[in-house]
From TrEMBL:
UniProt-recorded name of the protein: SPOR domain-containing protein
InterPro entries given in the database record: SPOR-like_sf
N-terminal signal peptide: 1-25
An example Gene Ontology molecular-function term: peptidoglycan binding
Species name: Flavobacterium hiemivividum
Keywords: Signal
Lineage start: Bacteria, Pseudomonadati, Bacteroidota, Flavobacteriia, Flavobacteriales
Amino acid sequence: MRISIIKNIFFYSILLSILSTNAKAQDRNLTVTQDSKFEQLLNEKRKINPSLTVNERYKIQVFSGDSDKAKKTLNDCKQNFSDLDGTIVFNTPNYKVWVGNFRTRIEAERNLIEIRRKYENAYLIKPQK
């Protein structure tokens, strides 16, 4: 009885070692094809995500006042400056229209000169969290 158990263990260990030598690891290359809309969605996500834009970037405040005028001003800004992103931020008691998302102060100041031609009260800000 004891010999048959030893034979079985020996047989299964030999069988396992033979089978494991024929096993192959993952050695193939994988090619991923990505839809072009995926990159567009990522860019939109980056625009919307406030943690990426607040405290690292400069913005230009164009308006501060009530909600209706803020919406009109934002629409007007989007038509005049289509290359800049705009948003409305509520800080009690005013709605503020912020335009742009500039990495450096120099870049923001260059755009501020152009924006001041249309909005005289525009000024540069660096929002805090």
